[in-house]
Each structure stands twice: as structure tokens, then as C-alpha cells.
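From the pipeline queue, job 12 of 40. The input is one protein chain; the requested action is below.

Action: predict structure.
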Amino acid sequence: MSVLSAHSRHDPVAVAARILPHERRRGRGASTNASGRFEIQTREDFDDGWTRDEAPEPLKTEVIWERPKVIITRNDSPDIPFDRSINPYRGCEHGCFYCFARPTHAYMGLSAGLDFESRLFAKENAAALLERELAVPKYAPAAIAMGTNTDPYQPIERQHRITRSVIEALDRCQHPLSIVTKSNLILRDIDLLREMGRKGLVKVFVSVTTLDRQLARKMEPRTPTPEKRLEAIEALNDAGVPTGVMVAPVIPAINDSEIEAILSRAYAAGAREAGYVCLRLPLEIRDMFREWLQVNFPDRLQRAVSLVQSMHGGKDYEAEWGRRMAGSGPYAWIIGRRFETAARRLGYREEKTSLRTDLFRKPALPERGAQLSLF
């Protein structure tokens, strides 16, 4: 039995039938918009063969304001080097088809497909919530990570500036921060990051998935070009902000040949730390991967799926700690050794930069009965 016909939903004919017309998904990463997995009724758009006199309007981005009760998310995963994070937004307009955060949109009753990149949630009171949580007497400082779920510098940040407000709050409290982003919009905040970097309070990782501009546009349609990201690494490094590169995700048969080239270009730009993550296919992403391949690289579909499954014991994905980020098996081992060898040869630091916590000062609590500022 072929690796693709083991599940009828994954048969190439079934995959092709789910893909929306190009006009409906122009400039987006997902090819479909199936209902969230928790919905009682299932909705899945498809091309029924009928034509319209006018082409449909391109999908527009909608921003929904959200008022969460807390802003710091805690985790105890041994796979990641932080125990707390902040995500100013839900959903991400960058449209990376492979984003492992896509399935979280199901908790909002929305699709992990086009909804994830067009129906976004902005946390308008993020900075005020942060200061309130940092002011709790028992709070002990440790680096807060941003960019762990959705990109804090996605396009809507230009207008809403929630990420900047969070960084300003952390700067006032002298609190350590780490950022992962694909966007050179981070350079807008270089005034804050420069001072935090001088004090040992911040480091940045820029994600570079490919050096091929055309491939990047297919993989992550609304992100800055690879060159812009490399320029951001150089500018941050020149400003004294410790900067690294993330080669993530490594996608079999798509960008896996570029590991050494990405590390080399990033090192030349000033990156001195590096990390990688192999492609992860949790929940809805396993279907979206096949859909994306069918649209962009149908000739590589079988090989790419086969290699992914070889890293997860014949399955699309394993969620077990210690295996989900890098996989296992011969192919995963080769990817790891290639990365390590190239990083060592180029001179990347093996020890990660530690951020200071001794400068932290708690924000003053508002007087009892006083209302917190929204911004």
C-alpha cells in the first residue's frame, strides 16, 4: 500500500478536490478553510465547477479585539528553554503553511486554514496585564519569550503596536526578554532593544527558512524576504543586540538542502547562536502539508511525506517530548549532524547567552480601586 493511499483523505485526488480556487486564496499560505475540529457541523469549501461572472474578492484580514485575563503563558516542557511566554496576537497574517500554532484557532471555533491567517485576535490590554503580573509579590524573574506561537512582528503590529508596548513595559522593569521573528519590522524597536542589549536583558533569533525568494513566497507569503531578514540580523548585531538564527522548520525535500548555506549567510551577517527544528505536523497541519505540496510541488509530494513519516515511526507526527522537535531515525539523525557540523565549522557558540535577572524591579501596583490603563 502506498504511503499516500493509506488514508483516503490523503489520496492525491481527494487532496486536489479540497483546494480552493486561486482567487480565493491569493496571497495566502493555506489552500483550504475546513471547519475547526471542535465544531458540531463540518464546513469545507471546494470548487464545485460552477463559474461566476466576476472573480471573488481576495480574502481580507479581520482583526478582533480580545481582552484576556492574563498575558504570561506558562509551560513545563523539557523541549524548550523557557518556562513563560507572551503572545500579543492569536493567528498570524504571515501565512506560513507549516505553522504549528494553526490548530489553536480551533479553540476559537475557527479554521486552522485561511481563518488562521485572516481572522486575527489582538490583545489590547497586554502591557497593562503584564505590569500587573510582574508586580505580584511572589513573581520571580526569568526570560520571557515572544514569538513562540505567532510572530510578534506580523504585519498588523505596524498599526497596533502591542508588541512594542510589551517591550516598553519589560524595559521599564529591567526584565529579560527573548524574541523569535521572521520580520525586519523588529528594527522599528531597535531603540528599546539596543538599551536592553547593552544591559544583557535581551536576545533575538531571526528565523530564516530559505534563501530562495520564490520558495519563501510560497512557504510564507506575507513575510519579509530572506534578504530583509539577513539585513535585520546585521542591523541588530551592529546595535549590540545579541542575535541568532533559527533554521526552522527544516522541511524534507523542500528546504533541507539549504541548512549549511543559511547558517553561513547568517553568520556573515552577525548571528552567533543558531538552532533548528524539523517540520512538525500536529492535527490539521498534516492535511495542510499535503495540500500545500499538491499546489506547489506535486512531484515531490510522495517523497516529502515519506521522509517526514520516516522521522516519526511511520506516522505523520509524534507528540512525545524529546522527539517532536527533531524526530528520530536515520534522516533526522543526518539533519542533526549536518546542522551541528556546519555550526561548529562556522564558529557558532555552543553555549547559549544567558540573560540577566538581577536588574529586575517590580512595577508599582496601582492604588486599590484604580483602573488599569488599556495601553
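Job complete. The chain has twelve helices and ten strands.
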